[in-house]
Amino acid sequence: MTQALQHKVVVITGASSGLGEAAARYLAAQGASLVLGARRADRIESLADELNRAGGKALAVATDVTDHTQVKALVDAAVQTYGRIDVMINNAGLMPHAPLERLKIDEWDRMIDVNIKGVLYGIAAALPYMKEQKSGHIINVSSVAGHKVTPAGAVYSATKHAVRALSEGLRQEVKPYRLRTTVISPGAVDTELPNSISEADISDNVHKFYQEHAIPADSFARMVAFAISQPDEVDVNEILYRPTSQTL
Description:
By secondary structure, the protein is of the alpha/beta class. The protein has one domain: NAD(P)-binding Rossmann-like Domain (Rossmann fold, 3-Layer(aba) Sandwich). Helices cover 46% and strands 15% of the residues. Strands 3-2-1-4-5-6-7 form a seven-stranded parallel β-sheet, with helices on both faces. Helix 2 (41-53) links the parallel strand 2 (33-38) and strand 3. Helix 1 crosses helix 7, helix 3 runs parallel beside helix 4 (105-133) and helix 4 (105-133) runs parallel beside helix 5.
């Protein structure tokens, strides 16, 4: 168990599967107290029960990150239950790739709502508490797509570039409060993310790529733990990582 992670109060959005679930399992094993947010209440309730039975501390709060009142309620629940919030992980995201010419406007809107607004709402919910505490760590999840743009990925990449820009602006603004910020940009990681692609030809290509290259989601959990466990005077601002076999 890592001493630096013991008793940290960590809120995770998108905790019902993939990166969020992996982070929850890893951090719970290191002694962190967790508040899990996701739309799929049954999934996070089951995960919280499992972690609690194993001796951890976890609370599940059904949360749609496109609704700022629900994200605020998620963070409020953390403070009401544990007395503080130490880490906010804005992880919820969608990746419905499609060429722009196919005009998947509803999917564009959904990506903007989840991938950008969801991060902003997480920041808005956590920041007042962290400012008052004069301590805290906000971790935003971008992607390799936040560094590189590919055909069929323009809108997704735009949202993930936005997460990096928001994270850098946040980093500069919170210095008076001694807060830390990290943006993590994973490459191909074995999650349900490709399942959000509705276009069959694009979905087939992405699933094939993931089958060939994707690494386990606990890789992300270790990146999170690394950033959190640094001494207070060390601020790990950005982590970009890929499968060793991924060229993109």
